[in-house]
Structures are given as structure tokens and as C-alpha cells.
Amino acid sequence: MSDIPDWFWNAVETESESGSVEVDDADIQYRYWSGPGKPGLLFVHGHNAHSHWWDFIAPRYCEDYQTVALDLSGMGDSDHRDEYSADTFANEIVSVADANSMPDNTIIVAHSFGGMMALRALASNSGRFQGLVLLDSGVKAKEDEKPKEVERWSRPKVYPSRGIALSRFRLQPPQQCENKYLVQYIARHSVEYVDDGYVWKFDAELNARMNPAGDTAEDLKSLNCRAALIYGENSESFSARSAAHMKTLLPSLDVYELADAQHHLFLDQPLAFMDQLTAIISSW
User: Fold this and answer.
1) What is the residue-averaged pLDDT of the chain?
2) pTM for the whole thing?
3) Is 41 helix (H, G, I), strand (E, B) or coil?
4) DSSP state, 69?
């Protein structure tokens, strides 16, 4: 444990509080590190993730921003649904902002799947937020689009012990990460106990229950607020070509490549990521 840097311990030991808001008959959980009275910073996680992915990021900003992170439905500690949609997730994002009295100068920071849901939230709620920072997320160039694989769903895997469950944790999409202490921290917050063992804290049928996402390109083009994209130099999920494509859709988009980073860019280069994010939101 001695090789874990002090900045990480200082971040994860920063106290946070939790709350929930009901959205379309589901309780949506959120956590916050600071309250109203400052510009807002709302963090949205990726697919099958949760708010604890931001535990070592969000505290850096709590002195200058009202800092909040949520669990989208079907993930983390929020309720599961019979059906999911981009509009529902967008409503959850806005509802959490409203429940925390976050001001109109709130900036959303959203990773991967969460970025596309945040795009819908901003596109359908003009004027509610000041800006959006997409993280390895957005509209891919046609050349980068991959056909969706047929998903085979089975009964959720139940592990006999927490230790065995944690040993099976993998980042999705798959990638190696040198900062194993960050992956291990996330893993510890990704399992929960049920009657006969330990399971992952996400709805294994979310994709099967997800209605069509809508037109993400139109959502991007319709933005009338500040917007930026940070993508990983070595990401297999997002490319410089897709970043350039997004610039054609929204010429005002600020684009930044994070060196030596993959899709989970703030796990690969947490300090460089925070420096880049700080530079962006400070300039806004």
C-alpha cells in the first residue's frame, strides 16, 4: 500500500454525503462533496459504472465548485428499471441537478456512455447548464463505428465471496491500467451482497431493456453552450478521426488529446486529466 500516492488518500478520505431523488418511479442516488452557493460541477459515470468512479477526482474541485456525482438508474445504488432510454437518463441528470439546487452555471463532466446521456440532457434542456466536458465520448466517425454484437444474457453471476468477486473485476471495454490501486478501489465499490452471494452493482439486462438512443449527432449540433472533448491518445473506443468529425458537427467544440491514456483516461493519467479539466473549466 506504500506505493499509493498521498493525493489519492487525501481525495478518497474527503467526506461526502448522499441523497436520492425519485425520477419516473425510480430512486436515483447521488453523492456530493460541497453544497449550493458555488458554480456547479456534475459528474456522470460510464456504462455499468457508478458515482464512486469520481471519488479520487471530484474532491479536487469541492472548494471552488458545488460538486455532485450520481448513479444512473440500473447502476450503482440506484433502482433498476423495466425499460431504459436516453430521455430517461437525461431526466435523471437534470433531476439530480435540480434536487441539489445546482445553478445554471453548472458544468457536466461525463464519461463514455454517460457522455451521450449528458448530450441528450443538455440538448433537451437549453439554458439549464453552462457547459459539457465529454470524456472519450460523443459521435464517432463512420469509419470508427463497429457493428453491435448480439448479446447473450444469462442469470447474473453470483460469487460465493467478496474476494472472488473482486478478483473477477475487469474494466469494460477491456484495457490494462498501470494504476492498479485505482482499479482496485473502483472494484471494491462495484459489488454488493444478495441472499446467496455477491453480485455486480448493475442491471445485467440494461442493454436489452434500452430503447433506441436517438440521434446523438443532432444532440451535439444543437448545443448552445460551451463544450469540450478530452479523449485518450491510445483509446480503442475513440479516435482523433472521430474527434475531427465532432468538430465538423460543432465547430465551437474544444478538443484535447490526453497523452498516454486509453478509454478510461482518468484512471490511466489521473493527475494529467485533472490538470486538463481544471484548465478547461477555469477558462469557462
Assistant:
1) 95
2) 0.96
3) strand
4) E
What is the amino acid identity at position 20? S
Number of Cβ within a 10 Å radius of residue 210: 18
The residues, any chain, with a CB within 8 Å of residue 163's CB and separated by 6 or more, are: none
Taking each helix axis from N to C end, the angle separating 86-99 and 113-123, rounded to the nearest 10 degrees, works out to 70
Radius of gyration of the chain (CA): 18
Q: What is the DSSP letter of 93?
A: H
The DSSP code sequence of 128-192 is S-SEEEEES-S---GGG--PPPPP---SPP-BSSHHHHHHT---SS----S-HHHHHHHHHTSEE
Query: How many alpha carbons fall within 13 Å on the CB side of residue 5?
Result: 9
Distances (CA, A) of 245 to 20, 172, 173, 176, 265: 37, 24, 22, 27, 20
Burial of 84 (0-12, 13-18, 19+ CB in 10 A): buried
What does the block give as the cell for 33?
A: 462533496
User: Cα 115 to chain center, whole Å?
Assistant: 7
SS3 40: strand
Instruction: List, for residues 183-236, the tens digit of each pLDDT value.
Output: 999 999 999 999 889 999 999 999 999 997 679 999 999 999 999 999 999 999
Distance CA 186, CA 83 (A): 26
Rounded to an integer, what distance in angstroms lies between the CA atom of residue 218 and that of residue 249? 8
Distances (CA, A) of 212 to 87, 88, 128: 10, 12, 24
Q: In whole angstroms, give the CA distance from residue 181 to residue 208.
A: 32
First-to-last alpha carbon distance for the chain, in angstroms, is: 38
For 63, which DSSP code? Answer: T
